[in-house]
Automatic annotation (TrEMBL):
<feature type="domain" description="Carboxylesterase type B">
    <location>
        <begin position="2"/>
        <end position="450"/>
    </location>
</feature>
<protein>
    <recommendedName>
        <fullName>Carboxylic ester hydrolase</fullName>
        <ecNumber>3.1.1.-</ecNumber>
    </recommendedName>
</protein>
<dbReference type="InterPro" id="IPR019826">
    <property type="entry name" value="Carboxylesterase_B_AS"/>
</dbReference>
<dbReference type="InterPro" id="IPR002168">
    <property type="entry name" value="Lipase_GDXG_HIS_AS"/>
</dbReference>
<comment type="similarity">
    <text>Belongs to the 'GDXG' lipolytic enzyme family.</text>
</comment>
<dbReference type="InterPro" id="IPR050309">
    <property type="entry name" value="Type-B_Carboxylest/Lipase"/>
</dbReference>
<keyword id="KW-0378">Hydrolase</keyword>
<comment type="similarity">
    <text>Belongs to the type-B carboxylesterase/lipase family.</text>
</comment>
<dbReference type="Pfam" id="PF00135">
    <property type="entry name" value="COesterase"/>
</dbReference>
<dbReference type="InterPro" id="IPR029058">
    <property type="entry name" value="AB_hydrolase_fold"/>
</dbReference>
<dbReference type="InterPro" id="IPR002018">
    <property type="entry name" value="CarbesteraseB"/>
</dbReference>
Amino acid sequence: MIVRTPAGDVRGEPIATGVPFRGIPYAAAPEGALRFAEPVPAPSWTGVRDAREAGPTAPQRHREIPGLDLTALVGPGWRPGAEYLTVDVWTPDPGATGLPVLVFVHGGAFLGGTGSAPVYDGTAFTRGGAVLVTVQYRLGVEGFLPLEGGATNLGLRDQLAALRWVQDSIAAFGGDPGNVTLFGESAGAVSVACLLGSPLATGLFRRAVVQSGHANMVRGRAELDRLAKVVAENLGVEPRAEAFRALTAEQLLGAQDAVLRPGAAPDLRDDEGRDRSHGLSPFLPLVGDDVLPVHPGQAIRNGAGADVDLIAGTCREEMLLYFAPTGILDTLTEEQAVDMLSATHPDAAGVLRAYGLGERRPGDVLVDAMTDLVFRDGVEELVESHQGRTFRYEFEWRSPRLGACHGVELPFVFDSLPAAASLVGDDAPAELAREVNAAWTRFAATGSPGWPEDTTTRLG
């Protein structure tokens, strides 16, 4: 099936519930002078562009947690190719009009991931009468490292460019550009929260869903300048965009790998003595440019995004994803728990004592404390700060191996359980997946997921 977009015609392959179109460029390839530069619209093309296969992905390493295969959530890793600033579009009917649109921003610690990973299959959303768009954006050094002479917050600028593409082009796929829901998980949720507080995102989406992320996982210029200096030293160049443009993506990934090694990153704690990523990633959005002129949390408290309906929530045992597969929960000592949290929090011992250190198994204490510090506390603050309609959830269904861990809700949101057996097992409740997917689809269509505002709905 062929759809005519403003940039050119694209061909998709019909399935039972609609038509997916993959790898459609929303911005020009970030190569040459466009590396470390703001995205510009993709050039138009003649003829019909084949959009039946997934395209390239942003330069990245395949990220793994020992003992756990996350390919279903993060994809296979780097599929090389310059033209990776693309979207996948799943539509029930390109000939329709006025369908609700959901735009998904994938997670991956701002280091990896792809919108074409198996779990992000759009079949269930199209079956429910919605258009799904999944977005790829620049990552790591190329997406979130500010350099002299280069643009800042490039990954967020890419997402803004994708949202502008949706405004211009989604009607060709049956979608309503006036009814766009932006949603994301983990780093994608941080991105959504940041854009909720960004003046550049005004009018680009009507609703938002923030899954296990929030507006506090950002950095100041001083921390990111320290990171840029260390990355540049590893490359043997100055921390300037011109110097980085002369290097290959593989060279930049090598320098990125170097700062990800334990103890190799610079001190990224802020003036309060906290590393806002809690060690999950050195690369976070920057506060202090035109994308985020003020802290996004403060902007939201001041009324930014008040006209946007919001769902925000967490999984009950987020940090189990990082600790359960390794077996560390059974062996961690009290001293080790304090040492681990001390790297990112100025009063680790005090925090852990408040969670029962000395009375409970240290591994369980650390999971509970870090679930709150890294995820739940920030989401609670976001919910309390948002001036518009707000719905809160907590995902409680426990997978046999990993409990209610970070990311476990994703195959339920997309109703794609078979793709995520490594995470949820073989007997995950299909009825719950249908309910959660229907709630997200209903929210996109009506502004309500089907539960009351200002209460926490338990899912699972």
